[in-house]
Amino acid sequence: MSTRRWFRLPDHYEVGREKIREFARAVQNDHPVHRDDECARKLGYLGVVAPPTFTAILTVNGIRAVLNTVLPDRDLSQVLHAEQTFEIHRAVVAGDRLRCAVQITSIRSPADTDFVALRFVVTDQSGYLVRVESTTLAIRRGESVRPDIARLVDTVAMRGDGDRTPYLIPITAAADLPTSASGPYRGPDVDTVPRADRLAVGQALPPRAARLTRGDLVNYAGVSGDPNPIHFSDAAAEFAGLPTVVAHGMLTMGVTAGYLTSWLGDPTAIRTFGVRFSRPAEIPARAAADLELTGRIRALGPDTATVALDVRAAGEQLFSRAFAEVQLSATTFE
């Protein structure tokens, strides 16, 4: 199959205030700018601000559309997230109307797994760049996909899509192609607690604990629109070769973003956030998964920092690599 082709989702996504609040609660991002209009206005925004990983809602829809339109012989229950990066060009605010273009950049097929690399470009109602996301999926195929999996998925998967099953429309006109060129961040100045002159390379961020339950997984599945049954069905997880139900990679990434912004004090200060997933967080039927989140300053600029992040569950790393590039408030002289 040829790659590098561009597609788009057929309709825009209108960002609602209550959806932002629901998503923030689902990923445990507790900054008041995600729920309080007055707090958002004080930071210079017209409405509540979405958490950094909010556009995962469009990503999930785009992945489903790729499977339905371009890779129809692949099954959602066989999909695991391998890598994800967000390039953040401006904050998402209630009232935004977002459009999403998708490009399949490569497909590698070692053994019985396809590694599918995708690029998502999200723009706003004025055509300005909002996010550029790079996603790599690991999809089991061929003989490793048993027919009973398809039957199982049909009995436990979310119903109700009907004729609204996500699909893609090819982009044929050059003028309609999205731009992913980097540009200056568009939005009010950030207001972070840490300043670059008060940080040092190697300095540790305060650690934080988080907890994920099966209820959290079901809630995130509904809020994000991710219907993959491995996140709530023991039988689906078993058939997919997993020891138990596992957390969404994007959920653990969202929780990690909340950890980072709790240190920054400003959720709009993240410019790039990327992870390589090493293993999913396992969520047993009768217990929660306790996450340990830590970070360390890897590099500093005049008003920027690169932070290396680490998240563990039961002592095991969930990310083999995780980093964020953040904007810091200008140094103030007292």
Automatic annotation (TrEMBL):
It comes from the Bacteria. Residues 208-297 form the MaoC-like domain. Residues 10-130 form the FAS1-like dehydratase domain. Pfam families: FAS1_DH_region, MaoC_dehydratas. One of its GO terms (cellular component) is fatty acid synthase complex. SUPFAM superfamilies: Thioesterase/thiol ester dehydrase-isomerase. InterPro entries: FAS1-like_DH_region, Fatty_acid_synthase, HotDog_dom_sf, MaoC-like_dom. One of its GO terms (molecular function) is fatty acid synthase activity. GO terms for biological process: fatty acid biosynthetic process. Signal peptide: none annotated. Gene3D superfamilies: Hotdog Thioesterase (3.10.129.10). NCBIfam families: fused_HadA_HadB. Belongs to the enoyl-CoA hydratase/isomerase family. This is (R)-hydratase. It comes from Nocardia terpenica.
